[in-house]
Design a protein that fits this description.
Length: about 100
Amino acid sequence: MKKCPSCNEDIHDDEIDCPFCDKPLNQPAKKSIKLQYKTTVIVMALITAGPLALPLVWFHPTYKKSTKIIFIVTTTIITILCLYVAKLMFHYMMQQIDMLYQYS
Ligand SMILES: [Zn+2]
């Protein structure tokens, strides 16, 4: 007999999956990483929310400090570029509007 690492029930040694909780027994129940700390989720959050998602990076339990700094610097640069492009677009739009008024 052995114990299931997930639910602590007694089970036969030849079982592959726990009959109580269906978890596989050959590997120890590995620490499941929380959804908000998965890299893909963080990248998606950074793309959609920009610098607002940086706390997710900063409080990440397993990222190294250098990884965090790379994330933060990259996000900052992209944010500044986006603001710059937005400013250019705004100016261009205002020029177009001015021209429309001049010719009407
Ligand atoms: Zn179990």
